[in-house]
Amino acid sequence: MTYLVADDQPGEPAGVRFARLLERPEIVQIPGAHNGLAALQARAAGFAALYLSGAAMSASMGLPDLGVITVDEVSFFVRQVARASGLPVLVDGDTGYGEALNVMHMVRCFEDAGAGAVHIEDQLLPKKCGHLNDKKLADARDMAAKVAAARKARRHLFIIARTDAAASEGIDGAVARATLYLEAGADAIFPEALTTRDMFVAFARRMRGTKLLANMTEFGRTPFFTAAEFQEMGYRMVIWPVSSLRVAAKAQEELYASIRANGGAHKMVDRMQTRAELYAAIGYHEYEALDTSIVTTVIPTAMPQTAG
Question: CB of 50 within 8 A of CB of 31?
């Protein structure tokens, strides 16, 4: 599959394909993919949808997740992940990048970039990761107005309203906000930073019949649960937002330390993806085959060894 061949591209809008995944009986597992290569690897592993985390995008740019990246910067990530994988992508829309008109602009930009879904949260700027302290919540009616604006602007984008209210307003407050957001036009609800199984179960029971998204991030306030456990608790989607970036970043840190200590990367070769594995992942030869002027690449079979 290459994005250059029309027949290789999905015929339906990404939002339609994302919504259809939720018709399946099993929970939709949506891993984070922080770039196009990660997207290809996730697709090869069998996932049917991908997630773009604001924290992962920000960190990959060397920035904190404080709402400083822009719609255009996020659209760049959406384009590469959607184009590389051909899968519907759920995008972290933070607070919508402003008020109602900004939210509408975001929706159109993300749709044009190939997104299938977006979630918008009810924090005030500067926003924080949902699992950190002292988050400031927007007025629920202002958030509902953003959801309504997103609904009005969308052609196919699946709209998820995230509420961070559980930490400060409890389950009652989170449920009240979620109900208002559904009335404003949200397709699903994302209750962020629930801290116990009982909270997840209670929220799902109170929101019975609503499509719910769970966040299984590491080093946060939520205990580890599997996809099957989230499904049992009443959730239809689960994301692992920053896992791919964390694994990649740790490996890079170890690589740079090894080069610095040993004067080269030779002690890390057994930890590396080979050239053949990389070319297979990105479909190198499939692209070559599209242009007969390119001589077929012969991949070196082994690393040359130095004498002595």
Answer: yes
For residue 92, indicate whether it is catalytic: yes
Per-residue pLDDT of the chain (308 residues; tens, 9 = 90+): 677 776 777 889 999 999 999 999 999 999 999 999 999 999 999 999 999 999 999 999 999 988 889 999 999 999 999 999 999 999 999 999 999 999 999 999 999 999 999 999 998 866 655 555 666 899 999 999 999 999 999 999 999 999 999 988 999 999 999 999 999 999 999 999 899 999 999 999 999 999 999 999 999 889 999 999 999 999 999 999 999 999 999 999 999 999 999 999 999 999 999 999 999 999 999 998 888 777 788 888 767 666 54
Q: Pick one of 3.90.1150.10, 3.20.20.60, 3.40.50.720, 3.30.43.10 as the CATH number of 13-242.
A: 3.20.20.60
Active site residue 112: no
Is residue 131 part of the annotated active site? The answer reads: no
Q: Is 169 left (phi over 0), alpha (psi -120 to 50) or beta?
A: alpha
Please say if 35 is a catalytic residue. no
Which three-class secondary structure state does DSSP give residue 226?
coil
109 catalytic residue (yes or no): no
Enter the pTM of the model.
0.93
**Among candidates 104, 96, 102, 157, which has minimal Cα distance to 122?**
96
Q: Catalytic residue among 17, 35, 92, 181, which?
A: 92
Q: According to CATH, where is 3.20.20.60 located in the chain?
A: 13-242
Catalytic-residue membership of 65 = yes
Identify whether the C-beta of residue 260 lies closer than 8 Å to the C-beta of residue 251. Answer: no
Identified catalytic residue from 17, 162, 177, 236: 162
